[in-house]
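User: Teach me something about this protein's shape.
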Amino acid sequence: MNDRRADDDRPTDHDPRQGPLAPRRRTRAQERIDSLDTSPASLASEVTELKERLARAEQEAGDNRTGWQRAAADLANFRRRTEQEREEILGLASESLLRKVLSVADDLDRAMAQMPPELTGLGWSEGIWAIDRKLRQLLASEGLTPIQAEGLPFDPREHEAIAHQETSTVPDGTVLAEVQKGYRIRERILRPSMVTVAKNETGSTSGQDTSDEQGREAAQGREAAGG
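Assistant: First, the predicted structure itself:
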């Protein structure tokens, strides 16, 4: 019976006259499986090693992620600083040019103020007025706005006192006259108004000294901001 069962395991297409079957060759996969140490201790050691390798890989991935995030933040900060510096440089260049244009506008204003009344209606004088209007429109389009001064309390942030005049008609510290118009560009003072400030009996010499000191401090602040 055992011989019959053994014969049943043989391939059906084998011819007995060809001799006994050769033993089957083992594949590399089978040989590798047989060589593995499948004891519980060996498997536990391998699992521990795999866990350690996984932990190291996760730590390395975390370090790489942190480094990438730091590099991305540094790049974003660099771009922001570069853009801010570029805007500041352009702003300073624009302010420098506008100051020069304002100097020309001041000369034009003085020339127009000295124009005799009988020349007002002539064609060439009207042309000068048109040039002045276009120049003012150009300055306004660049964000330039005049600073209000006359009749207002002296403000050292916007006004620069070049003289004091005794009077009893207005409160002490009131701007009596504007010698040179001041301008701001957006939120910055491009040029303070040169003004004459009232001084009366209700005020004191210390008030004048205070306004002068405030004016000097404000001028120093503007120079520091512009430098």
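Now, about its shape. DSSP finds five helices and six strands in the chain. The CA atoms of residues 184 and 190 lie 5 Å apart. If you'd like, I can walk through any region in more detail.
User: That's plenty for now, thanks!
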